Amino acid sequence: MNIQAIRLFLHVIREGSLTSGARTLNMSQSAASRLLSGLERETNLQLFSRASQRLRPTSEGEQFFKECNRALLAVDELPRTARRLASGARARLRLVAGSRVAASLVAPAIGRFAKRYPDVEVDVRFTTSLETPTVVAERAFDLAIGSLMPRGMPAIDVEPLLELPTVAIMRRSHPLAERTSLRAADIAGHRLVAHSAGDLRDSFERIFLSEGIELEPRFTTNSIDLGCHIALHTGAIMIADPLVALTIDEEAFALVPIKPTHMAMISTFTSSLQSVSQITKRFKVSLQEEARAIEARLAGRMKRWDGPASRPKRKASNRP
């Protein structure tokens, strides 16, 4: 398949016109038009709707764009890979880390891994919860770590890593800090910090609605890290898993379990389209060790939570 035609197709989609795409690749509009037509004949797909002056991608075109973008990223990476191998580099591990686990779980695991394999190059891409599905779909990684992906993510194998209880995070001096557990009714009258949108916000709204209470936070944010800092500075309560609070300052926060118990899952993700390398398997061992260390720390802080260490590990798959 003509790589130049694919590059043109991507530019036309991104820039919205054949003229702009042709200009970017330094070709005439007529040559660009022939190249696109040839791509449609070769793929047997109608990539654009030509009902108006502006080229608009069809549904087939939009899906083909995603696959072309992923494939071209891999092609463009080849020269860098060749240079790295020619320079004598032995191995490289490409990680994608979700915002909730980057500092609390992944960074310490990299520390463990680097002591054992000091010659391995580690490339970490930090993503927000909204970016992670797109980055994972591109498959330009060896291992991703974060919350569960949306259903229907194709050809991704999921392995649960760490299951954590949802807790109320607050100052140690907070009036509720000595409680052994809290329900929505117990904290509804206090200042609350909540996630601004997404699955976390939806799950906590359900916890409140199950007791006939509407979640009415004083503060909202799309960052658990920032939310924990706000709770610390304002005396508010944030409902989240305890990972971020443990990373910021373990001694600064009280962590009180929410009842009924709500568990948050952290998982690892690999592409089922490629074999898992030995380097990736070795890093997963470091991750698992760090996960068990976090469970032990939490068991010490929350005596009524025994942790999932004794539970059998489960494997799941997001294959369609």
Description:
- The protein has 11 helices and 13 strands.
- By secondary structure, the chain is α/β, with parallel strands linked by helices.
- The chain folds into 3 domains: 3-83, Orthogonal Bundle (Arc Repressor Mutant, subunit A); 90-164 and 264-317, Periplasmic binding protein-like II (D-Maltodextrin-Binding Protein, domain 2, 3-Layer(aba) Sandwich), CATH 3.40.190; 167-261, Periplasmic binding protein-like II (D-Maltodextrin-Binding Protein, domain 2), CATH 3.40.190.
- A 6-stranded mixed β-sheet has the order 4-3-5-12-6-13, sandwiched between helices. The protein has a 5-stranded mixed β-sheet with strand order 9-8-10-7-11.
- Helix 8 links the parallel strand 8 (192-195) and strand 9.
- Helix 5 crosses helix 11 (278-301).
- It is globular and about 75 Å long.
- It starts with a helix and ends with a strand.
